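Deliverable D2.4 — example input (structure tokens):
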């Protein structure tokens, strides 16, 4: 693994950028919806799978909490399904099973009415020892305390305002935003791989946030990976191309603090906003990496869980399930409406 030094903006440059950016961000934050309601639809399309094998499909379900409420839910599938929950992070899923010998296509249309609010730092009780261990531990592609991080950490330690946890966390964010480029070129990006981000210095949101988490955890700052989908707040409806992810880190003085380094790199005018504030422009599905939701995934954990996961006769299937995602703002529903009973139907 080679390490290539990159230039870093000076403190004076970043201070000027902060003042200029905040002049833009403050009006944006004031204009952005502080709470919104939308309908999100997750469609699983038919895929060719062996007829002579038992098929299990696991589809992630959105979480509640931290600025997200599910007002109602509709789960419709070509075969009956059941709910389950991953034990470590509490991620939820909908499991559809097809017995061997059946040629029934596996399709599903899942939709939710979601109330999302702008989220800032979330005051919290001190972490339990178990939580501390979970959010400081390495993942398969997210090393902690590895030598590949040392040159970056040396830069961060030189540039941070002081040695406090808060100053270190901010310096990590600034370093990642300044030194990693958001682009999708060739292969290798998109796996949430810290080693890739260190050597190539580009990738998508998973690569940005794998590196952020590695650096934070190495500095003893608990950090958790969250993934879902973007829900644009500059239009009222439309299709969504794919997932988006972000991070929350735990600072003793502030609790769980949201950051979004990849969006900050893409949109410099939002850099200050996205350190400590999470706009209502997303839907959260699952938390964590290396997830175990079945016997098959116990041998080969899920890197992350946002698209359907399939097992064939209990073995992970590596193909891609065709999917389609869309949203529509809902203007005529009270945000405080109670959650409706879910519809569980087989077409």
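Example output (designed residues):
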């Amino acid at each position: 693994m080679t390490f290539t030094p990159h230039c870093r903006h000076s403190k004076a440059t970043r201070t000027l950028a902060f003042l200029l950016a905040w002049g833009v961000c403050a009006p944006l934050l004031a204009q952005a919806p502080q709470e919104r309601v939308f309908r999100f639809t997750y469609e699983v399309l038919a895929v060719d799978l062996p007829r002579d094998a038992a098929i299990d499909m696991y589809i992630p379900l959105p979480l509640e909490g931290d600025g997200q409420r599910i007002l109602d839910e509709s789960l419709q599938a070509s075969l009956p399904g059941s709910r389950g929950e991953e034990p470590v992070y509490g991620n939820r899923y909908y499991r559809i099973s097809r017995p061997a010998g059946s040629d029934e296509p596996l399709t599903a249309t899942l939709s939710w009415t979601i109330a999302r609010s702008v989220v800032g730092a979330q005051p919290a009780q001190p972490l339990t020892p178990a939580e501390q261990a979970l959010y400081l531990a390495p993942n398969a592609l997210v090393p902690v305390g590895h030598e590949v991080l040392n040159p970056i950490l040396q830069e961060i330690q030189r540039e941070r305002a002081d040695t406090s946890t808060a100053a270190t966390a901010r310096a990590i964010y600034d370093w990642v935003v300044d030194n990693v480029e958001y682009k999708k070129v060739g292969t290798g990006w998109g796996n949430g791989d810290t080693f890739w981000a260190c050597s190539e210095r580009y990738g998508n949101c998973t690569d940005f946030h794998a590196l952020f988490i590695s650096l934070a955890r190495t500095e003893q700052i608990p950090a958790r990976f969250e993934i879902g989908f973007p829900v644009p707040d500059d239009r009222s409806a439309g299709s969504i191309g794919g997932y988006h992810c972000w991070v929350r880190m735990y600072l003793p003085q502030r609790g769980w603090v949201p950051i979004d380094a990849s969006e900050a790199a893409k949109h410099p005018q939002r850099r200050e906003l996205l350190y400590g504030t999470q706009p209502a422009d997303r839907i959260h599905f699952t938390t964590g990496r290396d997830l175990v939701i079945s016997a098959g995934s116990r041998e080969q954990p899920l890197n992350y869980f946002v698209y359907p996961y399939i097992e064939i006769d209990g073995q992970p299937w590596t193909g891609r399930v065709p999917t389609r995602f869309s949203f529509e703002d809902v203007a005529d529903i009270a945000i405080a409406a109670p959650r409706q009973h879910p519809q569980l139907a087989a077409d």
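The mean pLDDT is 90.
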